[in-house]
Design brief:
This protein is mostly helical. It has a single domain (about 5-215), classed as Orthogonal Bundle (Hypothetical protein af1432), CATH 1.10.3210.10. It is built from ten helices and two strands. Strand 1 (about 5) and strand 2 form a beta hairpin. Helix 1 (about 15-25) runs parallel beside helix 3, helix 2 (about 30-50) runs antiparallel to helix 3 (about 55-65) and helix 3 (about 55-65) packs across helix 6. The radius of gyration is 18 Å and the shape is globular. About 40% of the residues are buried.
């Protein structure tokens, strides 16, 4: 059974948040929906622990939309899935009259959530979404949560059996039709893991074979 409050972290009780929840539930697999909700709780718990000031509704929006670009709705897109996700959130928030400066925070939080080394130097909402996603998928920052916190989040929004392989499958199926979009990111790891025939693009080869070298 899902809960809206865990360790004093609450899912925002607003019409906007309820509509987001329903949209993501209707669009994503149960695995991605539960993952996205856990990302919000991990992110908010980290924010609380660090004493950060953030907008819970914006954090919830970024957490819930961050992986929507992996769904079948975007099976013909050639953009990075993070950009599809960020654009979907932006369209939704604009349609509800949210201020552009707030939309920009959500867009950046989603677009940069797989980019190491940058989000932690930006607005708390941006830093926290990356931290929450990293915790849920790869266990980054695992030790900063108590056993009770981890167990409470997982009890409310269960982590499926063999979640790791199922999540890799979600990434693979969301990106296999747009391999070029994974260049320069760790997303090409998912394609390489699942497809023995996948060839990574190599920046050194691009530089060495550029027009400058044959001019």
């Amino acid at each position: 059974m899902a809960f809206n409050t865990i360790f004093d972290v609450k899912i925002p009780d607003s019409q906007l948040a309820r509509e987001m929840t329903q949209l993501i539930r209707d669009t994503e697999s149960e695995l991605l929906f539960s993952h996205s909700t856990r990302v919000y709780f991990w992110a908010a718990l980290i924010g609380k622990q660090k004493g950060l000031t953030y907008d819970p509704e914006l954090l919830y929006a970024a957490s819930m939309f961050h992986d929507i670009g992996l769904t079948s709705k975007y099976q013909k897109s050639q953009l990075r899935f993070e950009v599809d996700s960020a654009n979907a959130a932006r369209d939704f928030l604009r349609s509800h009259g949210i201020a552009e400066r707030d939309i920009e925070k959500v867009w950046n939080a989603i677009a940069l959530h797989t980019t190491p080394g940058i989000p932690e130097h930006m607005h708390p909402e941006i830093a926290l979404v990356q931290a929450g996603a990293g915790m849920d998928v790869a266990g980054r920052g695992f030790e900063q949560f108590t056993d009770q916190q981890r167990e409470s989040v997982i009890a409310a929004y269960p982590r499926e059996t063999d979640f790791a392989h199922k999540m890799i499958d979600e990434f693979y199926h969301g990106m296999k039709h747009r391999p070029a979009s994974t260049f320069g990111t760790f997303n090409d790891d998912f394609l390489a893991f699942k497809d023995p025939g996948f060839k990574r693009t190599d920046l050194c080869s691009i530089i060495l074979c550029s027009h400058w070298e044959h001019h």
